[in-house]
Amino acid sequence: MKITNNTEKSRPGTKILVVDDEQRMIHFIRMNLDLEGFSVHEAYDGKDALDQIRKVMPDLVILDVMMPKMDGFETLALLRENSNVPVIMLTARGEENDRVRGLELGADDYVTKPFSPRELVSRVRAVLRRVEPPKGGGGEAIQVDDRLRIDFDRHEIFVNNELVKLRPTEYRLLYHLVQNAGWVVSHDQLLAKVWGYEYQSETHYLRLYVNYLREKLESDPRDPKYILTERGVGYRFVDYKRLSDK
User: Cα angle vertex 73, ends 69, 75, to 5°?
Assistant: First the structure.
């Protein structure tokens, strides 16, 4: 796990909403995020969290799974109906099903309880880095084939002439795949580039987001033509330059 230090400063005004029904947990998280220069807001249940998100417009949400009335999963599902704000889920240690379910519902990361302040801050910084869009491709839009058009300078993806919305992590993953079109990019390289070096062992993130991209871009996600699997090694984006030469 990456250890944070004073050389990595928080962006001024970065707002984090912490959602947990335990006041002691919120106090613990607030104390450590305050020390790192974040602006921390609080909510104690799912309904309050959704109200606070509309009012505060946070840059990131830390959301506990186990809450009364409306749990973290229900809250996340409602949130994802109209917001792409990055979310870190807090889960009980060993509850792998909770972690997988959270990621499938649209969480960007998770932290298992109990956790150290350093781990939490490291995860927060990693997610905030990840949602920053990569720089544009520095050239014209890419016409992969008759179906798929990618314009990194405008941050636009078109499938069959319809604009497709990608979440920030999906966009970064596609960017790094396309920038290496025709070449195999290893699991470790993609995890380091998209998520950060501290995530190089978390291959389940990569599998999940490759599936997300295929669902949005491929005509048949079960038989992909753009994002190809090189088993045991990594993934390769189709060499679109060769396609255009045919």
Answer: 65
d(CA 232, CA 24): 44
CA 187 to chain centre: 16
Long-range contacts of 36-39 (CB under 8 A, 24+ apart): 36/4, 36/10, 36/121, 36/124, 37/9, 37/10, 37/12, 38/10, 38/14, 38/124, 39/13, 39/14, 39/15
Amino acid, single-letter form, for residue 149: R
| Amino acid identity for residue 148 in this structure | L
Return phi, psi of residue 4, to 5°. -75, 155
Entry field: residues in the chain: 246
Rg over alpha carbons for the chain, rounded to the nearest Å, is 19
Q: How far apart are CA 246 and CA 244, in angstroms?
A: 6
- The pLDDT value given to residue 3: 34
Q: What are phi and psi of 157, to 5 degrees?
A: -125, 130
Give the separation between CA 234 and CA 160, rounded to whole angstroms.
Answer: 27
Structural contact between residues 184 and 230, judged by C-beta atoms closer than 8 angstroms:
yes
**So what's the pLDDT on residue 139?**
65
pLDDT in tens, 18-65: 999 999 999 999 999 999 999 999 999 999 999 999 999 999 999 999
Residues of the chain with pLDDT under 70: 1-12, 93-95, 133-139, 243-246
- ω before 114 within 30° of 0 (cis)? yes
Residue at 75: amino acid letter? T
Question: Which residue type occupies 26?
Answer: I
Integer Cα distance of 107 and 205 in angstroms: 11
Residue 133: per-residue pLDDT: 67
